[in-house]
């Protein structure tokens, strides 16, 4: 079931076109990552979905409802890029307030405080919270009432690695419960295992929208294979495989996805000379650079 | 009901930020001082001591209530926009009208509480001083209700400024200017025009309506016996009587509605 439908959407501020002809849909239970440089238009797109800023062109529907309508607002959970709360309130007071606005029992707010690991600090004033703790309150309020669509704008910025891990656990749980999740991020590597689909924005345009392995295939980015040998054999292996020696005992080879198995076969042929093999697929960073650059050349 | 959810939170915030305490202390302090001071010279004249007290408290309230109203409201929209809490609030299924109304109810409650404490002290002190028990409480009730209306008008003006300014610093500057104009400069201007006119057409036809058009002046006219007005408000009062009680009451009840409506319209145009 399609929860979010974005159809040829554009946004202009005066003469500045910040989002252009974006088509994207997110289904129930799907986790979609929105990638892009600063200023690519990710936040603007989310604000249009929320009805916080008018759409200049195209159409957006959330379960068939117009952005900003009460019907669409009551099914969306939103975590803003730099989330802020009333400093004079405690985390529990703030969250219970939001629960009431969403017609959710205050009890659910308390459960969510537990879920994001804030129950100990729940009765302290928010002004005493660290950035990470505020982010957790932000996540908790976005989860209130089991939203049909979760919009999370750079949710893991400011979180330490363990918190990030916990954060993605919560996102997984949310998606398993049927929520469509659209999240934007800068920290590319963490997305690899944690999202179903990746949409790349560059200068307001959507330049890619697919799952990770399809994106890799389409980009035909080389895979690198890192071969560790005994030091005396490194030169020999490097020469025979046509790779590059990087330090005393390692040889780095690159090949296309289709040649990977054949390449591994040849490496295995060296038998005892090889101590270890690491296969490193093109990282999201490289992929992202590829798609952004392709877009710029096309202009 | 989202309106009450918003109002409840705003009340909590007002308590935390000491706004309730500040408003109550201000009202209580000035009321006590004026009640005690006002009673001294007139105590022997045989006038109802409560009338004397309400008259002196009215002169104070004309300044204090608009000020408290503006101070409670100037941050309401600009502050949230600036701190970044507005966007998140607007994403919840609650309309801007409901948000504004919720804040208004909370702030009006704070103001009402402060005025009630002040007037309670006034009545108590007066009874204690004069020993009288058969005083009519009608003027006190009238003062309370019109104080709420005056406060509501300036709360609305404060929200309007807050929505238009979008920055708390700017909004706080503007409300102080608006306060000065409404409660001080406006009357001075009218007085100047009155003197220049020398009892001509302006004094008879335009002036009474200009006077009553200012809610602070309408408030003063409603709550002061005419002779007291002429004494305390530098002669501005008697000529104001022409517009009549109906005009005064219309002014003070219409202002909150107009100001809140304009504030709502301005708020609708704020992009968080
Ligand atoms: N209110 C605004 N007025 C004018 N330009 C804006 C406004 N908001 C955002 N922009 C511009 O839109 C572009 C996209 O911004 P944004 O959506 O915040 O990017 P991202 O979230 O991907 O970093 C930027 O060039 C930004 O300067
Ligand atoms: Mg952004």
What would the principal axes of the Cα set say about the shape of chain A?
globular
- What is the percentage of strand-forming residues of chain B? under 5%
| Count of the domains of chain B | 1
Uncertain segments of chain A = none
Structure description:
- The complex is a heterodimer of chains A (299) and B (272).
- Chain A is of the alpha/beta class.
- Chain A has 10 helices and 13 strands.
- Chain A has 2 domains: 215 residues, Rossmann fold; 60 residues, Alpha-Beta Plaits.
- Helices cover 34% and strands 29% of the residues of chain A.
- The two termini of chain A are 35 Å apart.
- Chain B is mainly alpha-helical.
- Chain B has one domain.
- Chain B contains 13 helices and no strands.
- In chain B, α3 packs parallel to α7, α6 runs antiparallel to α7 and α8 runs antiparallel to α9.
- The longest helix of chain B has 35 residues.
- Chain B is globular, with a radius of gyration of 20 Å.
- Chain B starts with a helix and ends with a helix.
- About 4% of the residues of chain B have low confidence.
- Classes of the chains: A alpha/beta (299), B mainly alpha (272).
- Chains A and B meet through α3 of A and α1 and α5 of B.
- The complex binds adenosine-5'-diphosphate and magnesium ion (MG).
- The site of magnesium ion has 4 residues of chain A, from α1.
